[in-house]
């Protein structure tokens, strides 16, 4: 398995955790403690994926354009996952130690959500765009839609963080539906991007490696013609 696919696998499994964790039916099925563990495991997987992504982006950190953007996007996203590690662990500790705990076990941390938004914005700004004053993603190539969907997922997490703080702190899981559903939608966006990268072996957030892959493919084609 390539490093890109291992990164995608971590993000995919982490996204699944954040996708199923907010569902009341899942919490009722496994219990609040197991639900809190699900969020914590998901945050660890996100951190692992972010670490590999930062490692892959490291060689291009000083290059102009996509390489530098990929590095900053990766490192800021990794910082956001660390904030999620802290808050999901705290939620897990509370759920495990408090037998009468019956509230939402975790809501997106605002600091981690801000990091995700900044990371997603950097990646989208570095992607190919056209039309409507340069805001729409340009079609063509593998994963051309990933930066836009990734940014949308970051926005959903941001909305979930806001909803989690606006609603009454004593609300039940059902009362915090806005936070739950936006977390699920954000996780679904991240999962779609991860599955596409897992399938193709290429990430649109690492343009340097995408260009290298195209160059290698072109070189192989030319060699086959000569031979």
Quickly describe the structure.
With 227 residues, this protein is an all-alpha fold.
Q: How would you describe this protein?
A:
- The structure is a single chain.
- With 227 residues, the chain is an all-alpha fold.
- It is 73% helix and 2% strand.
- The chain has a two-stranded antiparallel sheet with strand order 1-2.
- β1 and β2 (136-137) form a beta hairpin.
- The two termini are 30 Å apart.
- The relative contact order is 0.16.
* Shape, per Cα inertia axes: elongated
Strand order, main sheet: write it out: 1-2
Average pLDDT for all residues = 81
Give the percentage of residues in beta strands. Answer: under 5%
End-to-end Cα distance, whole Å, is 30 Å
Uncertain parts? 171-175
Helix and strand element order = HHHHHEEHHH
Q: Main beta sheet, described?
A: 2 strands, antiparallel
Please compute the radius of gyration using only Cα atoms: 19 Å
- The assigned structural class equals mainly alpha
Number of helices: 8
- The number of E-state strands comes to 2
Helical content (DSSP H or I, runs of 4+): over 70%
Features:
227 residues, mainly alpha, two-stranded antiparallel ribbon
Topology at a glance:
Elements lengths: L2 H18 L3 H7 L1 H26 L8 H32 L12 H17 L2 E2 L5 E2 L8 H21 L10 H24 L6 H20 L1
Helix pairs in contact: 1-3, 1-7, 2-3, 3-4, 4-5, 5-6, 6-7
């Amino acid at each position: 398995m390539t490093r890109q696919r291992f990164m995608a696998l971590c993000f995919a499994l982490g996204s699944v955790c954040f996708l199923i964790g907010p569902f009341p039916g899942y919490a009722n099925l496994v219990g609040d403690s197991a639900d809190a563990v699900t969020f914590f495991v998901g945050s660890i997987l996100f951190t692992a994926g972010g670490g590999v992504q930062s490692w892959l982006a490291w060689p291009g950190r000083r290059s102009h354009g996509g390489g530098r953007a990929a590095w900053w996007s990766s490192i800021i996203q990794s910082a956001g996952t660390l904030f999620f590690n802290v808050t999901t662990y705290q939620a897990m500790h509370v759920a495990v130690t408090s037998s009468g705990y019956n509230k939402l076990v975790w809501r997106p941390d605002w600091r981690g959500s801000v990091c995700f938004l900044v990371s997603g914005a950097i990646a989208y700004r570095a992607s190919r765009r056209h039309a409507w004053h340069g805001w729409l993603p340009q079609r063509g190539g593998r994963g051309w839609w990933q930066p836009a969907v990734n940014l949308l997922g970051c926005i959903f997490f941001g909305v979930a963080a806001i909803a989690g703080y606006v609603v009454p702190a004593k609300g039940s899981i059902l009362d915090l539906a806005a936070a739950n559903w936006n977390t699920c939608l954000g996780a679904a966006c991240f999962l779609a991007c991860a599955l596409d990268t897992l399938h193709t072996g290429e990430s649109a957030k690492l343009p340097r490696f995408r260009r290298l892959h195209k160059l290698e493919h072109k070189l192989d084609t030319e060699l086959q013609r000569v031979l």
